[in-house]
């Protein structure tokens, strides 16, 4: 049994690939997902499927309600932007699907979970290459959080081994991520990335994350196995 590691798992393409990477590197993963008031909470069913299929020591779903703040198309009555092609993405602005401070909140929970299970490693699926526009997906943010984590915890003070925050996708394009997942045998039909799926769990095909996902599969010459509403 490998060293324990906490893996943030949304049930989407990126976090599923990160879980596969953590296992491939010999870690024993403790998966962590969130029911945070997101409009697309059906993603948690995907997270459960992924955790079971890839294998985890434990899968925790933490309840927090970010709807009390709103401020995002994912947690408030704000329409999810839809576009016809990936070329229409606005690369110079923070999109309305950004959830204020979400990664900082999620990583704080992961940090607490890591202390409890004795993990010195946390894996997150943030990526800075293909457009997201999210300020908490940048490499300098990840580096700063890792430094803070080693100052803010008992484990960071008492243990000789520092906590490490892994972001193996951060310099990878969506195509690179898909290619790596395929190499690791990931079944992407289990995942859900869409910001606005229908009640049947079919992806919309036109939100930012759907367009980037489809672009990634197309660039590696593969077919995205999830169902789309207009397919």
List keywords for this structure.
7 helices; 231 residues; five-stranded parallel beta sheet; alpha/beta; globular
Describe, in plain words, how this protein is organized in 3D:
The chain is globular. It has 231 residues and is α/β, with parallel strands linked by helices. It has seven helices and five strands. It has helices at 13-24, 43-54, 102-117, 139-152, 154-158, 174-183, 208-219; strands at residues 4-8, 28-35, 58-63, 121-123, 164-166. The longest helix has 16 residues, at 102-117. 35% of the residues lie in helices and 11% in strands. A five-stranded parallel β-sheet has the order 3-2-1-4-5, with helices on both faces.
Radius of gyration: 17 Å
What is the percentage of strand-forming residues? 5-15%
Main sheet: strands, sense, barrel: 5 strands, parallel
Trace the largest sheet across and list its strands. 3-2-1-4-5
Number of strands: 5
Q: Distance between the terminal alpha carbons, to the nearest Å? A: 43 Å
Give the overall average pLDDT. 89
Element layout with pairings:
Layout: E1 4-8, H1 13-24, E2 28-35, H2 43-54, E3 58-63, H3 102-117, E4 121-123, H4 139-152, H5 154-158, E5 164-166, H6 174-183, H7 208-219
Parallel strand pairs: 1-2, 1-4, 2-3, 4-5
Write a compact overview of the structure shown.
The protein has 231 residues and is α/β, with parallel strands linked by helices. The protein has seven helices and five strands; from the N terminus they run βαβαβαβααβαα.
């Amino acid at each position: 049994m490998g060293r324990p590691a906490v893996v943030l798992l949304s049930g989407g393409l990126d976090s599923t690939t990160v879980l596969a990477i953590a296992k491939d590197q010999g870690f024993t993963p403790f998966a962590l997902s969130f029911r945070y008031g997101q409009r697309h909470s059906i993603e948690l069913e995907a997270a459960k499927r992924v955790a079971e299929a890839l294998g985890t020591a434990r899968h925790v779903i933490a309840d927090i309600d970010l709807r009390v703040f709103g401020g995002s198309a994912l947690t408030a009555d704000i329409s999810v932007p839809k576009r016809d092609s990936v070329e229409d993405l606005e690369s110079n602005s923070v999109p309305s699907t950004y959830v204020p401070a979400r990664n900082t909140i999620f990583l704080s929970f992961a940090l607490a979970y890591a202390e409890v299970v004795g993990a010195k490693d946390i894996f997150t699926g943030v990526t800075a290459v293909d457009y997201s526009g999210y300020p908490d997906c940048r490499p300098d943010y990840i580096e700063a959080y890792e430094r803070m984590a080693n100052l803010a915890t008992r484990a960071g003070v008492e243990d000789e081994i520092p906590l490490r925050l892994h972001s193996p996708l951060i310099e990878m394009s969506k195509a690179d991520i898909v290619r790596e997942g395929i190499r690791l045998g990931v079944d992407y039909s289990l995942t859900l990335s869409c910001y606005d799926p229908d009640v049947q769990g079919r992806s919309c095909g036109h939100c930012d994350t759907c367009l980037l996902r489809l672009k990634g599969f197309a660039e590696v010459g593969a077919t995205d196995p999830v169902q789309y509403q207009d397919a």
